[in-house]
Known about the structure:
Elements: H1 2-10, H2 13-39, H3 49-63, E1 67-71, E2 92-95, E3 106-110, E4 131-136, E5 155-158, E6 165-166, E7 170-174, E8 189-194, H4 203-211, E9 218-220, H5 230-238, E10 240-246, H6 257-264, E11 268-272, H7 276-279, E12 289-290, H8 297-309, H9 311-315, E13 324-328, H10 333-345, H11 355-360
Parallel strand pairs: 1-2, 1-3, 3-4, 4-5, 5-6, 8-9, 8-10, 10-11, 11-12
Antiparallel strand pairs: 7-13
Helix pairs in contact: 4-8
Amino acid sequence: xxxxxxxxxxxxxxxxxxxxxxxxxxxxxxxxxxxxxxxxxxxxxxxxxxxxxxxxxxxxxxxxxxxxxxxxxxxxxxxxxxxxxxxxxxxxxxxxxxxxxxxxxxxxxxxxxxxxxxxxxxxxxxxxxxxxxxxxxxxxxxxxxxxxxxxxxxxxxxxxxxxxxxxxxxxxxxxxxxxxxxxxxxxxxxxxxxxxxxxxxxxxxxxxxxxxxxxxxxxxxxxxxxxxxxxxxxxxxxxxxxxxxxxxxxxxxxxxxxxxxxxxxxxxxxxxxxxxxxxxxxxxxxxxxxxxxxxxxxxxxxxxxxxxxxxxxxxxxxxxxxxxxxxxxxxxxxxxxxxxxxxxxxxxxxxxxxxxxxxxx
Length: 361
């Protein structure tokens, strides 16, 4: 038949006879191996490809040179600590040596220390890999606009959340099991205010002048001829049920230490600044009292007097302490370390155009 003809043509009889024992042996071996793996618990482990990838990545990190950040001018002329250990940021080298300008990956400039004529800015061209970082924590009202800065920087580091390297004055972190639980400090005062920058045109001053007619407010600071140190500040604020956290200027995201310090010290801040909604972008809505929630200073005073007599409602303002704790930023070190972290993660070219419009509007 044709089938037999094809077989005989493709495999000569003598060759098939020779191969037949090997074919049967191979089939038997295959059956044995299959049964062995099916009915045994034997596991063969092969090296994971991820191990080699992880090792390659680690090797790359280990051999990556340190990120150099040049502090071009110390903020207000005051040097600060240059360690990033508490931020868990590694491989950062900080310096104020301008001779390393050509090697620095980033240069940090503090706005309030830039001269209006830019005479204290670098004279040499910026290296192609280098990023200039505009650093400022004052509100626009307390920061002089310099037109020549408009298209000069690559990045911004500011309290605003839409900054390239946002550094708010504080933030809330989840509490850890090892953290000490919150304990309400002893209170012997109802309302306190510590202030030095006094201007009768400020809304906070006008609000205070009316509010004090309806409730006793314990006042301290240079504005009242009572200069206090850090320890006195802690003692005073923690001993008050409410603290007037009135900002000197009202701008989006501008929440200074005036709110974060009282929260950390176990006092309810009464805030004046941006809108309640903007405050709630930063802290829980039940952790503070906003002046805009009241039609008059007297109405606010009446609310505080009511809470003084109702302990359960007052202590509810501290419910957030069961979930969070306050972490305040370190002026200077936080900006330098977060700049280093950003540069390590973002190596591509960037430019920030329209600084003046973005910040001063």
